From TrEMBL:
Compositionally biased residues, Acidic residues: 474-496
Gene that encodes it: Ssrp1
Disordered: region residues: 458-551, 609-706
Positions of the DNA-binding region: 545-613
Keywords tagged on the record: Chromosome, DNA damage, DNA repair, DNA replication, DNA-binding, Nucleus, Transcription, Transcription regulation
Biased composition (Low complexity): 497-507, 647-664
Comp. bias (Basic and acidic residues): 532-544, 634-645
SMART domains linked: HMG, Rtt106
Protein name as annotated: FACT complex subunit SSRP1
Gene Ontology cellular component annotations, sorted alphabetically: FACT complex; nucleolus
C-alpha cells in the first residue's frame, strides 16, 4: 500500500464557506493546502481521534475529529474512493473510518448533543446538522428559547448569522434546561467573557443606538458592550470612522462610531454606535497595563494614568486603539452660531452636521453621506409653511435624503457652504426668484449674473407696455369687475319675481319659460368678455413687431460663435455660465456700446408698434361695429319673446286681480333689457304688441260662445 494519498479539487468547509484545494494523507498526518490563499492546515496523525465518511451535497465528505475537540470537514470525494481511504486509515492511523448518513426526514425537533467543540442536532441516531461552537459569537436566552449568533464571514457571499432553539420546559426541580443549554454553548463558544484582561472599563455610558446604558470594556483587539439584556462584540477592524460632534445646546457631546459590518440585535442592524456625554462629567482613568507596555504599544498617545472629561477620555482611547482619526465639524457655523442645523429626517427631529468631506445626521436614524457620492443637492420650500425649507441630497446611486423643517435663517449659511464645496445645486437658477419671498435666502450670490433672469425681466417690461397700449384701445372688451354684492342683489330680485308669479295657479308654465331665457342672458353677459380676453391672450398676431433684445442678449448673439470656438464641445448650460462671467468682466465702455444698440432697437420697436397699433385699431373698430350690430339683433329677438309672454299675462289678468298684480311687477332684468333697447326697437315692440293683441280677443269670443 502507498504511503501517501493525494486528492485534487477537495473542498474544506471553514465557517460556512467552501475553500477548494489539495488534500494529502501521509503517515505523519493530513495536510490541506488552500488553492486561493496558499494556507496550509496540518493535522498530526497522533492528534486524530475519529474519522467519519458521509454523503453530502458535493458528493461524499470526510469529517475528522481531533483529541483536543477540533473538527475538520473535507468534501468532494467520489463514492469509489471510500475503500481506498478506509484501508489507509486502518493501516497508518489505526482508525476505523465509520459510515454515518445525515438524516433527511425534514423534521425540526430532536435532541441536541454536545461533543467537544461541536453541537450536533440529532433525530434518533442520525445527525441533521452540526454547528462548530467556535463559530458562535453570542448566546442569549429567553423564555424556553436559546439564540445562537455567529461571526461574520467576509469570504462567503451568504452567511448564516443566527439559529434559535426552542427548549421545552421539564419537570425537574432546580435545573433550568434553557440555562443548561446556554452554559454548554458558552463553555466552548468564542463568546466574549468578562475577564480581567480588559485595558480599561467605562461604566454606565448613555448609548442612543442601540438604546440603553452599557458598560464598555476596552480589550486589545475588540470592544465589548455589556448591557442588562444584550452584549455586543465589536472588533476594531470593523470600525470605519470616528466622529466627535458638539450638541447644539453646547452642554453635551456626541461620540459616533461607524461600523461595517454592523452589529445586530435580532433583525435590527446598527451601522452606527452613538454615545451621548455631558461636558461637565469628568473621570480619572487607570489602564490595566504597566507603564512600559503602555509606552511600547501606544507610543505616547496614552499614559497609564489619565484624567479629564469623560468624552475626551473615551475618544482618546478609541483613537489610539482603532488607529483612526476623529472627524470633527469644520468651519461651518449656522445662524445661531452652532456647528449644526436642526432639522427632521423621516418624521424624527435631529441635527445635521456639515463636515469637511460630507454630512452626518444624528441620531434617528443616523446617516453619513460623503461628498464624493453626492450627485446633487436641492433647496426646496417647505410644504406646509414658508418659515422653513427642505434640503434634499441625491446620491449617484439614486438614493434620496430629504432633511425638512430647516429654519429659513439657515439658508444663506448652508447655501454658501454647499457652494464653497462645489457641490451641484439642482435649482441654482431659482435662487434669485426666492429672493422675492425670503430676503434672507439670497444674500450670498447677488454678484453673479443670471442671463435667463435678465431676459425674463426685459420681456416682463415689454409685456407691461403692450398691456397698457391694448388697454387704451380695448373699449368695451375689458372684463367687468367682480362685485359679489351686486350679483347677490340680481339673484334675489329674480327669485322674488318668480315667487310672485308662482302664486298664481295658472301661469306656472309661462313663469318657467320666462326664467330660462333670463338665466341664459345673464350667463352670456357675464362670461363673454372673459372668454374674449382668454382668446386674445392665447392668440398671437404673427404680423406684430418682434420685441427688442436687451444689451446682454445682443452681445450674446454676436459672441456665441466665438465662445464656442474658444471652448470646443461646451454645453449650452456651461456656455450661458461662461457668457455671464465674460459679461460681468466686461468694461463699462464696451457695455455702453451695447446699451446704445439696445436703445436703438427699442426705439425702432416702439415706432413699428405705433404703426401696427393704428392698423389694428381700425380693424378692431370694424369688428366692434359688427359685434354691436349682432348684439342689437339678439336684443330685439329677446325683447319680442318677452313681449309675447307679457301679452299672454295681460289677457288673463281680467279673471283674477292677483294676476294683474303679478303682471304689473317686472324684474330688474326685464326692465333693463327693455330700457337698453333703441328707439327703433321700441317702435317695433309696440307694433308687435298690436299684432299680438287679436289672439286674446278671439279667445274671449270663443269662451263667450261656449
Amino acid at each position: 500500500m502507498a504511503d501517501t494519498l493525494e486528492f485534487n479539487e477537495i473542498y474544506q468547509e471553514v465557517k460556512g464557506s467552501m475553500n477548494d484545494g489539495r488534500l494529502r494523507l501521509s503517515r505523519q498526518g493530513v495536510i490541506f493546502k488552500n488553492s486561493k490563499t496558499g494556507k496550509v492546515d496540518n493535522i498530526q496523525a497522533s492528534e486524530l481521534a475519529e474519522g467519519v465518511w458521509r454523503r453530502v451535497a458535493l458528493g461524499h465528505g470526510l469529517k475528522l475529529l481531533t483529541k483536543n475537540g477540533h473538527v475538520y470537514k473535507y468534501d468532494g470525494f467520489r463514492e469509489s474512493e471510500f475503500d481506498k481511504l478506509s484501508d489507509f486509515f486502518k493501516a497508518h492511523y489505526r482508525l476505523e473510518l465509520a459510515e454515518k448518513d445525515l438524516c433527511v426526514k425534514g423534521w425540526n425537533w430532536g435532541t441536541v448533543r454536545f461533543g467537544g467543540q461541536l453541537l450536533s442536532f440529532d433525530i434518533g441516531e442520525q445527525p441533521v446538522f452540526e454547528i462548530p461552537l467556535s463559530n458562535v459569537s453570542q448566546c442569549t436566552t429567553g423564555k424556553n428559547e436559546v439564540t445562537l449568533e455567529f461571526h461574520q464571514n467576509d469570504d462567503a457571499e451568504v452567511s448564516l448569522m443566527e439559529v434559535r432553539f426552542y427548549v421545552p420546559p421539564t419537570q425537574e426541580d432546580g435545573v433550568d434546561p434553557v440555562e443548561a443549554f446556554a452554559q454548554n454553548v458558552l463553555s466552548k463558544a468564542d463568546v466574549i467573557q468578562a475577564t480581567g484582561d480588559a485595558i480599561c472599563i467605562f461604566r454606565e455610558l448613555q448609548c442612543l443606538t442601540p438604546r440603553g446604558r452599557y458598560d464598555i470594556r476596552i480589550y486589545p483587539t475588540f470592544l465589548h458592550l455589556h448591557g442588562k439584556t444584550f452584549d455586543y462584540k465589536i472588533p476594531y477592524t470593523t470600525v470605519l470612522r470616528l466622529f466627535l460632534l458638539p450638541h447644539k445646546d453646547q452642554r453635551q457631546m456626541f461620540f459616533v462610531i461607524s461600523l461595517d459590518p454592523p452589529i445586530k440585535q435580532g433583525q435590527t442592524r446598527y451601522h452606527f454606535l452613538i454615545l451621548l456625554f455631558s461636558k461637565d462629567e469628568d473621570i480619572s482613568l487607570t489602564l490595566n497595563m504597566n507603564e512600559e507596555e503602555v509606552e511600547k504599544r501606544f507610543e505616547g498617545r496614552l499614559t497609564k494614568n489619565m484624567s479629564g472629561s469623560l468624552y475626551e477620555m473615551v475618544s482618546r482611547v478609541m483613537k489610539a486603539l482603532v488607529n483612526r482619526k476623529i472627524t470633527v465639524p469644520g468651519n461651518f457655523q449656522g445662524h445661531s452660531g452652532a456647528q449644526c442645523i436642526t432639522c427632521s429626517y423621516k418624521a424624527s427631529s435631529g441635527l445635521l452636521y456639515p463636515l469637511e468631506r460630507g454630512f452626518i445626521y444624528v441620531h434617528k436614524p443616523p446617516v453619513h453621506i460623503r461628498f464624493d457620492e453626492i450627485s446633487f443637492v436641492n433647496f426646496a420650500r417647505g410644504t406646509t409653511t414658508t418659515r422653513s425649507f427642505d434640503f434634499e441630497i441625491e446620491t449617484k446611486q439614486g438614493t434620496q435624503y430629504t432633511f425638512s423643517s430647516i429654519e429659513r435663517e439657515e439658508y444663506g449659511k448652508l447655501f454658501d457652504f454647499v457652494n464653497a464645496k462645489k457641490l451641484n445645486i439642482k435649482n441654482r437658477g431659482l435662487k434669485e426668484g426666492m429672493k422675492q419671498s425670503y430676503d434672507e435666502y439670497a444674500d450670498s450670490d447677488e454678484d453673479q449674473h443670471d442671463a435667463y433672469l435678465e431676459r425674463m425681466k426685459e420681456e416682463g417690461k415689454i409685456r407691461e407696455e403692450n398691456a397698457n397700449d391694448s388697454s387704451d384701445g380695448s373699449g368695451e372688451e375689458t372684463d367687468e369687475s367682480f362685485n359679489p354684492g351686486e350679483e347677490d342683489d340680481d339673484v334675489a330680485e329674480e327669485f322674488d319675481s318668480n315667487a310672485s308669479a308662482s302664486s298664481s295657479s295658472g301661469d306656472g308654465d309661462s313663469d318657467r319659460d320666462e326664467k330660462k331665457p333670463a338665466k341664459k342672458a345673464k350667463i352670456v353677459k357675464d362670461r363673454k368678455p372673459r372668454k374674449k380676453q382668454l382668446e386674445s391672450k392665447k392668440g398671437k398676431d404673427p404680423n406684430a413687431p418682434k420685441r427688442p433684445m436687451s444689451a446682454y442678449m445682443l452681445w450674446l448673439n454676436a459672441s456665441r460663435e466665438k465662445i464656442k470656438s474658444d471652448h470646443p464641445g461646451i454645453s449650452i448650460t456651461d456656455l450661458s455660465k461662461k457668457a455671464g462671467e465674460l459679461w460681468k468682466a466686461m468694461s463699462k465702455e464696451k457695455k455702453e456700446e451695447w446699451d446704445r444698440k439696445a436703445e436703438d432697437a427699442r426705439r425702432d420697436y416702439e415706432k413699428a408698434m405705433k404703426e401696427y397699433s393704428v392698423g389694428s385699431k381700425a380693424e378692431s373698430a370694424r369688428m366692434e361695429r359688427s359685434k354691436k350690430k349682432k348684439k342689437k339683433q339678439e336684443k330685439q329677438v329677446k325683447s319680442k319673446a318677452e313681449k309675447k309672454g307679457a301679452t299672454s299675462k295681460s289677457s288673463s289678468s281680467t279673471k283674477s286681480p292677483s294676476k294683474s298684480m303679478s303682471e304689473s311687477f317686472k324684474s330688474k332684468e326685464f326692465v333693463s333689457s327693455d330700457e337698453s333697447s333703441s328707439g327703433e326697437s321700441k317702435k317695433e315692440d309696440s307694433e308687435e304688441e298690436g299684432a299680438a293683441s287679436p289672439p286674446p280677443s278671439s279667445e274671449e269670443s270663443a269662451s263667450g260662445s261656449d
